[in-house]
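Example (one chain per record):
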Amino acid sequence: MKNAADEREFKENTHRAVMRIGDLSARTGVPRTTIHYYIRKGLLHPPEKTGKTMGYYDETHVDRLIFISRMKHDLPGTFIKKMLPGTERDPLAQTLRASLEPSTSRSEKRDRIIRAALNVFLAKGYRNATIHDITASLGISTGAFYIYFKTKQDLFEESVDQLLLGLIENAEAAIRSEEDPLRRLFLRGHIFYANFRKYSDILNQVRGEMAGHEWARNMVRKAYLRITGPLIEEARALMDAGVFRSVDPELFAYTLVGIVEMLALRMTFDDAYSFEQIDRFLMDLIVKGFPYIPVGAKDHA
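Predicted structure:
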């Protein structure tokens, strides 16, 4: 309990996010023994001490360890030490780091991590996937991961966003030359069918985290806002053109998404239905609805 109290007091006094050596090791992927070695050799600045044995590290230690990890395979330790006069934020150190950076841009590296993570999440699920699984699939260090993302949850949210964004962009490209608003609805459905397995797998993972996790509930809400947004606009256009009778466009969009989800799920069971059959059924359902036939009316026809 004393350590926890010391940590709270230290944070309050320094106004910095601090961590213990175990947290620093987890963040950077650098073993504790190696961290101690770097401190003894002067490669890493010592932690802030609150007692004889208790020390606290901050983001400058994370930055330095990531920097050292990147360089250690290319440069001798003595040379690295000379290039680190104070903290890694020194201009000289920044210049050296920039010269050692691969030519790939930061955004491209980030996108690579997101794409790799999506594949790992689809294969293992959010709960079972680890940061090491993701970094190993790319051949990068755990420390490099933390340059771009704070946690696995942050990366998961980004991956879901990218998947949905790709789905919407593909749909927009497919309908770009189609002027018939009703046909535009069905082209969106085609894109949805083609991506249903990947889309449903990842959203089911998000739904699985909804109990007790506000971030997951927000993700589901955001996902369906993205999906239904364009459909609401298409529905309004159809109503304005007199093709559809006037109904609540948002409820229509959510109803349509629910129907399409179930039809797409049915298509994964076997090959009994084709896209064309699904299209015809859905077109008939949307245009004609479920016409009510009173009991006995058919017998008197």
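Caption: DSSP finds 15 helices and two strands in the chain.
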